[in-house]
Amino acid sequence: MIHKKVGANLFAQNTLNMRINSHLQILSLFMLMLLAGCSGSVTEPVSYFAVETPRPFGYVIGDEIAQRIVIETRPGITLQTASLPARGQINRWLNLTQINVEQQGEQTVINLRYQIFYAPLEVKMLSLPGFTLQFAQGDNVLSKDVPDWSFTVAPLRELAVRKNEQHEYMRPDVRPPLLSDSAALMGLWSSCSVSVLLGTYLAYLYGYFPQSRRRVFKQALKQLAKLSEGDMAQALTIAHKAFNKLNRQPLFQHQLTDFYRQHSEYQRINKSLEWFFDYSYHYFFSGKQAVTPQHLEKIRELLEQCRKIERGAL
Amino acid sequence: MSFKAIQHSLIWAALAISIGALLFNTGALLSVHSDNALIEQLVAGHDVDVSKVISGKPELRLARALYLKQKHRYDEALSTLSLIMEQGDQAFRAKVRYNLGNLYLEQAMNHVETMKMNEALPLVDLAKQAYRQALALNSQDWDSKYNLEVAMRLLPEMDRINSGNEDDPKKQATQLWTTVPGFPRGLP
């Protein structure tokens, strides 16, 4: 019986607690809604405003301090740039060296860069002066204060001006920088490599490499230079040998078409080649071919043309 | 003229151009090394032919100004530096201004040592101006910071009207300030 009564009391207490809890929940929800209504992210003209500053200590003379102001406004509200502080000297010891306004989507970011020229005798607290930003919405003007920002600045040297260990009051002159030779070196190496490459290629074209196939007619011309009209048989043999070497097998007149297929550039001197093979045939086989100095000259001209082709100049 | 012949001529032309570039760059490299030798010579305290400095790079003038300052030829050093104030990149211009500040400050110190305060004051002011300009160009230059502080100690800047909080920036913005000479001669 006693157990039953205790059980009923506990049940009643639990129910009461649950009711109180649910009321509290409703109340807190209501308060949250009220707060949300007060903050008014939708209705406030400036929905977000933050001044981002660096560490507020450890500055010395000549240091720069960056300040970033981030603003988010309702559409249609524009920042009046005239309300921004002007670039230049703000007071005796403070310069505003840089100011720029960026629009990043709905956010307006103002970047300010100050430079301090305060020479404190001991660690001293200074402050960047605040200013009032103005926004325009139609004819209405809204204001938002950027507060002062305090920071400490420290001295770099002791109080008395006296000579240091090197018997100088001050830091020495800066040594003039030595001129950089990297651009000239780079230019030198690149022009040198290009020259070497081109020179090597031309040397290859002109048959200066011992095993090059581009020296066939060069050698033939050298041998021909020693001959006179009396050595026509030798001259013709030299020329034939040169053509055979180029063709990698004996070259006959009827094979010229195949030869041109492999060495198309020689087709340009087809007439001279046809003449050469005709002349050679008649000289060796008919035995009636007259030999004149002009014929030897013609063979030399043919080989010179071949030489030009060989070095890629024709 | 066939395509092959044109190609062949072009290879020769390219070779000629690259050899020209090679000669030009060799000349440029020799000139850089010769200028650097002159700079080293001036820094070591030996004078060089002025015509080479006049026709050379601004770094040479900076070196000669340093040499002239070492020899206490301050006016010549000043005129040499003033010729290169707007030359070179930002870092170089900062260096020129720093050395200019040092030139003024050293002269001011010399006057202070002989107790010629009236001569020293404008020079300290000029030195401060030069260091400020150097720091505006390169705010990371510790030597400029240090020497500016030396100059500031010699000639502290104070507000004309002491409003209780002499560093209140809002009040200073519209007020004039002045400089008061103070030459601390060592701690007590």
H/E element string of chain B?
HHHHHHHEHE
Number of helices of chain B: 8
Return residue spans of chain B where pLDDT drops below 50 for at least 5 consecutive residues: 171-175, 184-188
Assign an overall shape of chain A.
Answer: elongated
CATH class of the domain at 46-153 in chain A: Mainly Beta
The fraction of residues assigned to DSSP E strands of chain A is 15-25%
* Oligomeric description of these chains: heterodimer
- The overall strand count of chain A is 10
Structure write-up:
The complex is a heterodimer of chains A (314) and B (188). Chain A is an alpha+beta fold and 314 residues long. Among the domains of chain A are: 46-153, Immunoglobulin-like, CATH 2.60.40; 205-310, no CATH class. Chain A has seven helices and ten strands. In chain A, strands 1-2-6-5-4 form a five-stranded antiparallel sheet, with no helix packed on it. In chain A, a hairpin with a 2-residue loop joins β8 (131-137) and β9. In chain A, α3 (216-225) packs antiparallel against α4 (232-247) and α3 (216-225) runs antiparallel to α7 (293-310). Chain A is elongated and about 130 Å long. Residues 32-42 of chain A have low confidence and may be disordered. Chain B has a two-stranded antiparallel sheet with strand order 1-2. In chain B, α1 packs parallel to α3 (58-70), α5 packs parallel to α7 (142-154) and α6 runs antiparallel to α7 (142-154). Residues 171-175 and 184-188 of chain B have low confidence and may be disordered. Classes of the chains: A alpha+beta (314), B mainly alpha (188). The interface between A and B is large, with 65 and 73 residues.
Brief descriptors of the model:
heterodimer, A: 314 residues, alpha+beta, Immunoglobulin-like, 5-stranded antiparallel β-sheet, 3-stranded antiparallel β-sheet, 7 helices, 10 strands, 41% helix, 22% strand, B: 188 residues, mainly alpha, Serine Threonine Protein Phosphatase 5, Tetratricopeptide repeat, two-stranded antiparallel sheet, 8 helices, 2 strands, 70% helix, elongated, disordered C terminus
